[in-house]
Specification:
3-stranded antiparallel sheet; alpha+beta; 14% strand; single chain; 3 strands
């Protein structure tokens, strides 16, 4: 007994969807592994020179400073906190980072 064209079309569509879901799952897994690998390589490293960052806590703001090039890096939302500081507080903050 030969399947009808509709049955063949249905089975082909089901097989396509199954393979598409498998590929999406594999892509998601590879993406998560790649993200984890990159985080292990780059976590607390200076974006400019690649050396270690030192976290400094100032007025509840955690500022990252490079141990080599003295670059100052802020995480998401920290720039808003710095912008909200008064000028005298900003002067004190920046004096911490002077050489």
């Amino acid at each position: 007994m030969k399947p009808s064209e509709r049955e063949e079309e249905y089975m082909a569509r089901m097989e396509f969807e199954r393979k598409r879901r498998l590929k999406e799952d594999l892509d998601r897994q590879v993406s998560e592994e790649e993200k984890k690998r990159r985080q292990e390589l780059h976590y607390m490293k200076c974006p400019k020179c690649g050396m270690d960052l030192i976290e400094i806590d100032y007025n509840k703001i955690k500022v990252d400073k490079c141990s080599h090039c003295n670059g100052i890096w802020l995480d998401a939302g920290e720039m808003d906190q710095v912008a909200a500081m008064e000028k005298s507080s900003l002067d004190k903050l920046f004096s911490v980072f002077k050489r």
